[in-house]
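Repro:
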Amino acid sequence: MTLSNTSNHFISNLPELDRQVLQPHLRTVELEHGKILHRAGDVVERMYFPHDGVISFIVGMSDGRFVEAGMFGRNSVVSPAAALDGPIALNQAVVQAKGRGSVIDTSVMRRLAREHETIRVALASHEQMMTAHSQQVAACNALHELEARLSRWLLQSSDLLSSDTLPLTQEYISQMLGVTRSSVTLVAKRLQQSGLIDYRRGTVKIADRAALLETSCECYATINAHIHRLSGWSPQQT
């Protein structure tokens, strides 16, 4: 039996035997916008395999501010370390764009990882992938201008949603990038005037992807290279 009804790369990329072992324990769930899958310090009790949508990993400060440390979706699994040796969440996972996914109890996934080496290796690779992604985002936030960072972020969101129309508000984008809304408004207006994006209330449409790629920083390509090397996924996959 194959799991042909899931577009999640982690699951579909497992050997057939491992997919058969995993399948009976999976439940399909709706991932609603704004849903918090876990908070920093939580024991991760459930693991999610998004079919679509976007999950943001965010790091918060004591004054209430926060910034996104990485985003994943159909290309990975939420918090793979929970099934290995890291049951405590290091950050908060929140649904950035709604979608559907499969969910499994972490205790079951931990047992399957012990019993099946290929599942354990896949989890470790995806955890490495998330670490590399977060490190690149940290460097990007520290060193690159907002226009390049916003372009990179929009392209990543588009890749995960398989769409150039993104359900995003400027308020939410500013929170994810750790900047003021007015800063995002100015940069988004400049990108729109240049014909790269089209912004309407609550929706950003990428109008010229090639030009947006030129505006984006090197981190977009670097992050995708890490993901492909460690998981085999690339944005062109459906």
